[in-house]
Amino acid sequence: MDIPRYWRLKDQRYRLQGTVCEDCGHYSFPPRLVCPNCKSKRQKPFAFSGKGTVFSFTTIYQTIERYQDQVPYLVALIDLEEGVRITAQLTDVDSDEVEIGMPVEMVVRKFYADGDNGPIFYGYKFRPIATGS
Amino acid sequence: MEKVAIIGIGQVPVREYWDKSLRELGARALLNALEDAGRDQIDGLYVGNMMSGTLSEQEHLGALIADYAGFTGVESLKVEAACASGAAAFRQAVLAVASGQKQCVAAVGVEKLTEFSGRRASDALAEAADADFETSLGLTFVALNALVMQRFLYERKVNRDDFALFPMLAHRNAVHNPNAMFHHEITFDQYKKAKMIAEPINLLDSSPIADGAAAVIIVPAKAVNASNKRIVDVLASALATDSIALHDRPELLRLKAVEQSVKRALDSAGITLRDLSLFELHDAFSIMSILSLEASGIMSAEEALQKIKEGYFDISGSLPIATMGGLKGRGHPVGATGIYQIVEAVTQLRGQAPEPIQVAHPKYAMTQNIGGTGATVVTTILKGQN
Asked: Residue A56 and residue B252: Cβ atoms within 8 Å?
C-alpha cells in the first residue's frame, strides 16, 4: 500500500512533469532540486511532450510480487524529444515488434491493482506511434 | 594515515541455509576469522548487509552480531550499499584502523536470501534501484542489467553466444572451491538452452541467490610481524558512486563509478593494472563482467569477449578472474559478496587456494564489488608477502 507515493507523484505519473533549469536550460525527468549540468538550484516545473524513441528494451519473464500477474511484459529506456531519458513500460506492442529507435508516445495506463479490494494505480506507459496509414 | 593489514579471514560455505539464522551465519564467519588471526578480541565491527530488514525482518545488525559473537559493548554498525555492502563495510573498517581510532576491527558481510520465497527476494533486490521511477513501474534488478546488455548488443555488434564463456569459466573454477555454491561445470549447450529471465539475460548469465557470510580482521600494519607470510597488506580501498537510475546516465554502457574507484585505488596503491596477479570482478551478470573489465581500463568489452577464448582469464592465464568461482559459481549472497571476494583474494595471496585454482606466485590482487547497476563501486587492492 503506497498511496502517498502515488499522490506525491501524480504530476509525474499523469503529465510527465519534470524540471527545466532556469540558468542553463537543462531538462530533467524526474524533477531535480539541483541541476545535474550546472549545479544551479533554480529549477522550474516543465511538462514533457511524451514523444520519443526507444533507446533500449527488455521483455521481463520473472518479476516482483506486484507485477506477477502481468508477465511477460516489456520495459524500455526511452529518449524523449526534449533530450531526456526515461524508464517506462511499453504497451500495445508485441516483443518481436519492438526495436531500438522505434518512435513511441506516452499514454496513461493501469500499473497494477493493490489486491482484489485495494485501489488501482495508473501512470505513464509508452506505445508505438502509428506510421504510414 | 596508518597502513593496515589483514591478519585473519573466515567464511561459511555459500549455501541455502534453512537451518541457520542471519546472526548465526554472521557470528560464525567472524569467529572463524578471529581463529584464523589467532585473536580473541576486536574493538570495532562493521557489518555489510543489504536486505535483512526486508528478508529477515531484522535490522540493527551491528549490535545483533556483536552481541551474538560475544562482543557486547564493542562499537558496531551495519553498512548498506546494495550489492556493494560487503566491500563498503570493509572500507569503513579500513578507515577506522587507518585513522588510528581502532586497533583490531572486523568487517563481516552477511546475507540471507532464502528466508522467504524467491519472489520476495526479487522485490528486495529491486530495492537497489530507483523505487519511484524504476521499480514501482515494474522494473526488476535483472531487467535493468538486461537494458544495458540489449543496448550493448545493438551498439557493439558482438556475437551474443560469446557471453557464455564467462559463466562457464566461473563454474569451472568453483568446482574446486569447497565454499562455493556450485560444484558442477556448465556447457555451451546448457547456456544456449537456459531460460530467459529478462531478454537477453538468461538464467546462466545470472549469479544465483544464496545465503552466506564472510569476515576479515584488520589491524595496523606496524602491529604485525612483516615476515609472517599470512599477512596481507591493504594497499587501497576506494569507493565511488554514480546515478542510481539508468536513465540518469548520459552514457549507459560506461560504468563511471568503476573508472573512478579503480583510478583512485591504483593511485593510492602506487601500482598499475599490469602489476595485478588476479582480479576478483563482480560477475553478477555476464554483461557486468565485460563492462567492468572495460571501465577498469583492462581492455575493451569486445576484446574481453575474444581474450576469454584464448584462456586470458584462466587460472594460468595473463589475468585470472573469478578464481574461486566468482559470483556466478561461488554464489552471490549480496551483502556478503564483497567480503567473500576479499577473503578469496587473501587466500590466493597466501598461496592457500586449492591446487587446481591456485594462481602461481601472486603478488597483487584487485577485487571489485559493484552495487546496483554500477551506482556504488568499491575497488580494493591487496598485496601478499611473496
From this structure: yes
CB contact at 8 A, A46 and A11: no
Alpha-carbon distance of A62 to A55, in angstroms, equals 22
Query: How many Cβ atoms from other residues are within 10 Å of residue A59's Cβ?
Result: 22
Paired sense of beta strands B276-280 and B364-371, if any: parallel
Q: How far off is chain A from B100, nearest CA to CA, in Å? A: 36
**Which triple of cell numbers denotes residue B79?**
553498512
Q: What is the pLDDT along chain A (133 residues), one digit of tens a residue?
A: 578 888 999 999 999 999 999 999 999 999 999 999 999 999 999 999 999 999 999 999 999 988 999 999 999 999 999 999 999 999 999 999 999 999 999 999 999 988 888 889 999 999 999 865 4
For residues B386 and B349, what is the distance between their CA atoms, to the nearest angstrom?
8
Ordered by start, the domain boundaries in chain A are 3-127
Is B198 in contact with A60 (Cβ distance < 8 A)?
yes
Instruction: Give chain B positions within 8 Å (CB) of A86.
Output: 133, 247
Nearest chain A CA: its distance from B123 CA (Å): 5
Residue B89, CA distances (Å) to B215, B235, B333 in order? 10, 16, 15
For A133, counting Cβ atoms within 10 Å of its Cβ (0-12 exposed, 13-18 middle, 19+ buried), the class is: exposed
Report the alpha-carbon distance of residue B108 to residue B78 in Å, rounded: 9
Interchain contact A10–B (C-beta under 8 A): no
A98 touches B: beta carbon within 8 Å: no
Residue pointed to by grid coordinates 506505445: A127
Count of C-beta atoms within a 10 Å radius of residue B109: 36
- Domains in chain B (CATH in brackets) are 4-117+208-383 (3.40.47.10)
Q: B174: Cβ–Cβ under 8 A, 6 or more apart, which residues?
A: B180, B181, B182, B183, B324, B325, B326, B328, B329, B330
Rounded CA Rg of chain B: 19
* Structure confidence at residue A130 (pLDDT): 80
Q: How far is A89 from chain B (nearest CA, A)?
A: 7
